[in-house]
UniProtKB/TrEMBL annotation:
Keyword set includes Lyase: yes
Protein name: Putative pterin-4-alpha-carbinolamine dehydratase
Known EC number: 4.2.1.96
GO biological processes: tetrahydrobiopterin biosynthetic process
Family per similarity comment: Belongs to the pterin-4-alpha-carbinolamine dehydratase family.
One of the Pfam families matching this protein, by short name: Pterin_4a
Transmembrane segments: none
Keywords: Lyase
EC class name: lyase
Catalytic activity of the protein: (4aS,6R)-4a-hydroxy-L-erythro-5,6,7,8-tetrahydrobiopterin = (6R)-L-erythro-6,7-dihydrobiopterin + H2O
Domain of life, per lineage: Bacteria
Tagged with keyword Lyase: yes
Example GO molecular function: 4-alpha-hydroxytetrahydrobiopterin dehydratase activity
Length: 96
């Protein structure tokens, strides 16, 4: 199986226009989600973990109480790929 193709800076910037709340930070897609409680933040993480596992693509993330910070990159490709964009979109859907 070959590594996913790294997106160009122009492709990433164009995609960011459609990814509400996401930005580019240190070469990774970045977003912080905030929830009403720890339980809701943890539930979000659990749901997204199932999606990530099914995709075979796992986030770098950090949780403190009601906040979940996510950074996405595809290490095999050395940057952001379509997989990162898809996982970011799914995170946004789950956070609603």
């Amino acid at each position: 199986m070959s590594a996913p193709t790294r997106l160009s800076a122009d492709e990433v910037n164009a995609a960011l226009r459609d990814l509400n709340g996401w930005s580019l930070e240190n070469g990774k897609l970045h977003r912080q989600f905030q929830f009403p409680s720890f339980i809701e933040a943890f539930g979000f993480m659990s749901s997204l973990a199932l999606v990530a596992e099914a995709m075979g693509h796992h986030p770098e993330w950090f949780n403190v109480y009601n906040r979940v910070t996510i950074d996405l990159t595809t290490h095999d490709a050395g940057g952001i790929t379509q997989k990162d964009l898809e996982l970011a979109q799914r995170a946004n859907q789950l956070a609603r």
